[in-house]
Amino acid sequence: MEEGPYKYIRDGDGKVSRVIRIGTRKSQLARIQTDSVADKLKELYPEIRLEIVGMSTTGDKILDTALSKIGEKSLFTKELENALERNEVDLVVHSLKDLPTTLPPGFTIGAVLKRENPHDAVVLHPKHAGKSLDTLPQNSVIGTSSLRRAAQLKKRFPHLEFKDIRGNLNTRLKKLDEKEDFAAIILAAAGLRRMGWENRISQILGPEDCMYAVGQGALAVEVRARDADILEMVSVLHDPDTVLRCIAERAFLRHLEGGCSVPVAVHTEVKDCQVRRLYLTGAVYSLDGSDSLKETMQTSIAATDKQCAEEVDERVQRVGVTATKISGEAQDGAERLGVDLAKLLLSKGAKEILTVARQLNDAR
Question: For a tag site, which of 27, 71, 93, 147 has the least CB within 10 Å?
């Protein structure tokens, strides 16, 4: 039964409980990711009823164009947010890297879960088993739809060629295995691991070969900002280190005004010395990788005792994230770190590199 914006269900004993509806993309990976969040919520709140609502997004429907050419920042999220706005679902599970750094008014990221391996992985055509990017033959074609991956790898492996490949994970692997078009494809290690396809990973690309996308490997739960009860319910899913790393990464990208259509890459680490410190490396690239800027900065993310005792204002969002149970001081430090690193790169000419990259990409 529906009452106001919410849905309730009456069981055999006449007991009424609220149904929490979770929106997701229909792809197999999206369903696996959503189910993993639903399982965690059921574990924490055995009494709640969950219902999963699958829907197709623009990004799922446009399969013949490179993502960077479509130029829409919310390709995989808009339809899900529309359902959230119309109260058809109560929360939505996304890959954090699909979420723009500025969310539409009325929405917030209520949880960022513990990050899976954020690095990119090389998946080889079966005939190249045992090789690596280094040892693939001259002019081998590598499939990737990411300008970020292509820019870094072109510079690092000049003997290889790079071509767009679109579709979900299943489609891309099929294109690799069943045709002779590609010697290898580059995919996020996190998606392959969640699908149970770890055995297809031939090589994990470390930061010296290819830094990752902002938010890569982390799942985000998006909710209506005014839904205090849902916000409270999902907040227990937050992983503090992942939250701080992703706030820094998202602040860096937002200040650079980067998105899908420009090559921007990051690497973050939390180090436990005497004082916990967050390290952020950020870089921008020209499309062919020949021109680049890369810098690293760090900040303390240790909360003072005073801060720990304080309630964090739940109306405060940092780059779209609401995390009331994590030190506000640490979150502010992470956000400042991202902005400061972006300012440093901009002072060295990042704007020019990104503008040219954007223009060249539009002209392709």
Answer: 71
